[in-house]
Amino acid sequence: MAYVRQRGNQIAIVHGERDPEAGKVQQRILFTIYSKAEALKIIGRKDKANARYFQDLLTHEYPGIRFDWNKINNTIEANLNILPDLYNYKAERLQARFRDDLCAFTRQLILTDPQELFSAAQLIRENQHELEYLSELIQWRLDMRRQEQNEWNTDNQFYWRNLLQGNKVPPEAEEYAADYYHRGEYDRAQAVFKLLIECFKDYAEGYNYLGLIALAQAKLDEAIIYFDRTMVLGRKLFPQKMARKHYWTDLSTRPYMRGMRNMILALIRVKRYDEALSFCDRLEKECADGITATSYRADIYLNLNLWQSAADAAISGHKLFPSESLIAAFACLELSRYEDTLTHFLYGTLNYPRTSRILNGQQMPKPKSNEEIRDHNTGVNLSRTLYDFKSKQSRKSKKFFQTLLKQPRIISLIQESEDLADKWRTKNPTPKRSVFKRLQYIRSFEFAQQEAEKLSEKIGELIR
């Protein structure tokens, strides 16, 4: 719990933390009050709105710490006499820290001269990605420097907003780094996320991205370590006494849940299925995310050749995630449920044509649109997640699905699905409503059932 103590002619809100190595409790300063004017705003003597504003800022900055505001405010009021009347907040909270860090960085950059020392050239090369990111960030900040003051960007005279943002990575900075990952520039993404982790303590999402990068590079043991760290740090971000029904709707829970989801994927990839199933149970019980947990169970059961369990799990979520129908199709074929196989295969294929073809051994050209990228990435990721199944898939099963993809009717439907999606994306104001309705229709489960009935007449020759 946070409490108040005197520091010379200042008042500090502090929190006791035990040093994991020494075992001693040390005080961590959460906020320092420098003047009577600031203290009066914090305790809300004349304006309760200021007190609520300060409390919201501090509790958001330190979500894992409990604040007894009545006790804190009473202690501050009892110590008002030690504080000076006024203080130069701009120099302390706005200018000083920025200038000190700017000078320290500038000094290092000036002294690290590649023309003078080979070791300096090596150091610059080792930090190339970070320096390129900083160069772009500096230009970005310079481009945005001419801002007019408005109600959304205004700070108060004590610079509370500026001070109480130090532990969080701003969303746009994270998005900038994440773009490297999404473009497949893994070395740059890894370097920048490691830099952000060093700059911002407890940056759980940074570890999650490092895990995703490791997963994409098949560094599976490394990915598991990163996802575990994501979960440990992510759990600390939770507000106290949060009900499970609020998980995922509260942004503070996202890193923990993403870390757990991705941990399951990594464990599946290394064939540690019992552990993966255990995390599925946790995802469902702790986070009330049974939909995702069931989806991962379908992958695990298919890899373990547990056909009925795989089919049941995949079918339960196929209308939310049509790609699940491709899992169901593989399992239903092994159970000799041929009409179900055809229905789920068609439904999954018309919604995820690239994924279906990738899973069934076809080489695909580089995706162009965002939808094609999403579809392609789903196929690549599923092929990795289902590696155990695919490596042991029977010749009969492979031939069946490959033959389906060669059927003229299915080829025609896939082409229509892709063409309609292209038309829907274009800016051409042709009858988009009719295009969208047709696209939704041929990607519906009911349409897949109708087409499966027509194809079922050929089922005999398809399974030979």
Please mark out the parts with pLDDT under 50 across 5 or more consecutive residues, or reply none: none
Q: What class would the helix/strand composition place it in?
A: mainly alpha
N- to C-terminal distance? 71 Å
What is the CATH class designation of the largest domain?
Answer: Mainly Alpha
**The biggest beta sheet, please?**
3 strands, antiparallel
Please tally the helical runs, counting DSSP H or I stretches of 4 or more residues. 25
| Shape summary | elongated
What's the number of structural domains? Answer: 2
Task: Summarize model confidence as the mean pLDDT.
Answer: 91
DSSP strand count: 3
CATH topology of the largest domain: Serine Threonine Protein Phosphatase 5, Tetratricopeptide repeat
Q: Strand fraction band?
A: 5-15%
- Known CATH architecture of the largest domain: Alpha Horseshoe
Biggest sheet: strands side by side, in what order?
1-2-3
Radius of gyration: 28 Å
- Helix and strand run: EEEHHHHHHHHHHHHHHHHHHHHHHHHH
